[in-house]
User: Fold these one by one.
Assistant:
Number 1:
Amino acid sequence: MSGSATSDPGAESADIVIEASNLARTFGDVVAVDGIDLSVTRGEVFGFLGPNGAGKSTTVRMLTTLLRPTGGSARIGGHDVLGAAAAVRRIIGVALQDAAIDPLMTGSELMRLQAVLHGIPRSESRRRCPELLERVGLSGAADRRVATYSGGMRRRLDLALSLVHEPSILFLDEPSAGLDPTSRLALWEEVRRLNQELGTTVFLTTQYLEEADELAGRIAIIDRGRLVREGSPEALKATVGSPTLRVDVDPVFLEATRKVLAGFGPGRPAREGRVAVGLDGGAARVTEVVRALDDAGISVSHLELDAPSLDDVFADATGRRLEGAAE
């Protein structure tokens, strides 16, 4: 847009609340994060998408002052994560995937303890803690020991704990890992409310394609410690282009199927027993594909055509599917 060319770059940089430059972390000979650059603006939900072991949690731990970088730099709300760690901690909330929550305490007790640790006056704590427990749907379980909570309840309690001091920036590390579908949807709705009603900036790490697609306005995809793609979900999908045609066949027909489909578009990564291509021309050519497979004597057990997804973006960038990356 023509307006962007005349915007004040200083004003734009003032809105950047999370910034990393050539950020790196090694553990001995293992490179966990390999010199990444990223920036997140105020009020944004930023998705950090990648498979297990890609470097997501290590990045979050560096950005939240829990782990020292071995290279590069990072600033949160204008504060350096090394030189001004205390100032960073005052403005962020952190809900980590492996957060330790005392199972012998009740939800209310943990909330009050968190308020004390943040120096919140008792009168304010009495108001704020019940409100947060109600916000995450735990009012009825407030006086129960955390040992009796389900996994979803613990994740929601962890979210409430991270919000006690009303942070302007919230880091969520794999917030819905291990949750059932209902709990996952409830957590997503709460993240949306925090962002839309309070203007909270959210930095969300996830390995779930749907979660990134649903919540994030912008996404960075990390693989093996390096950023491989970045942009809005729509823009990233647009880079893939044609929809993906997936064909399941008996193993004896795999090679013949690959040869037939090679004439319809570029090959794409697929699980065992399946052949996938980017179908040039889209849905209009499905009948032509079916006819070609039939003419070649290939028996098809399943055929589907899907619009480009974030998994296709990951596959295009890395040559493998996100779902199978952990294997």
Number 2:
Amino acid sequence: MKNSVFRFSMMGKTIERIMGLGIAILLLFMTGCGNSPNQARQAPPPPIEINVFAALGLKDALLDIQKEYEAAHPNVKIVYNLAATGILQKQISQGAAADVFITAAAKNMDDMQEQKFISAKSRRDIVSNELVLIVPKESTLAIRSFTDLANGEVKRIGIGAPESVPAGQYAIDAMNYLGIWDQVKDKAVQAKDVVTIRSYVETGNVEAGIVFYTVAATSNKVRVVAVAPKGSHEAIIFPGAMVTNSKQPQAAEEFLNYLVSPEALKVFQKYGFSKVK
């Protein structure tokens, strides 16, 4: 009899333990389920994307600025579309989704402003640049100035396609100013952007090329032999503005403000750009 009572007592305690364990598991499960909606509600919203259409010559500086800006603004993601100014201008005018437009020439921005594709009040002059003549680093040709391009030694000259690459138009203006364009225009090899011109020079596909100073400064395969004379072309200014149909106008405006800040200028200057005077 005593044994029966003892077994019954032990069985009861075992059942109690099992029930206690089951209740604990159930409470843990319910607590987990209860927290899921709260956790979902507390999840951070996706970052705001700013689509920036910018002249390719700004690439290296803008990539550095992107790192700094996103680190300081974790709720923002910068998405770049980098190409020749004329190509970007056409894309925006055809309805491409853009928030900020940065050109390599004031004229392109003037055209966009006149057609109301950008917000005039948001427009800012960001940085300036210089037009330079470059040759392959190991070149032995006697090229010391723009006028040397008329020499018989030079067979091919890389320039940007003037209808879409502002550096190309600057180059033609400079050579017209110096009175050599008619002599050298048949030597011109037109490229889709300034980086491609530099590549042509680096590989020896052309004996010389005309690009922005900042494009030349980021290559160890070319050297600058001359700077275009003052007054030979319009001042090279890179303006930026908010696109009229921007989906993130406030974020776009804040990013433009940052691009003209002392912090951003330090980055631009590291790559050879100058403050707009």
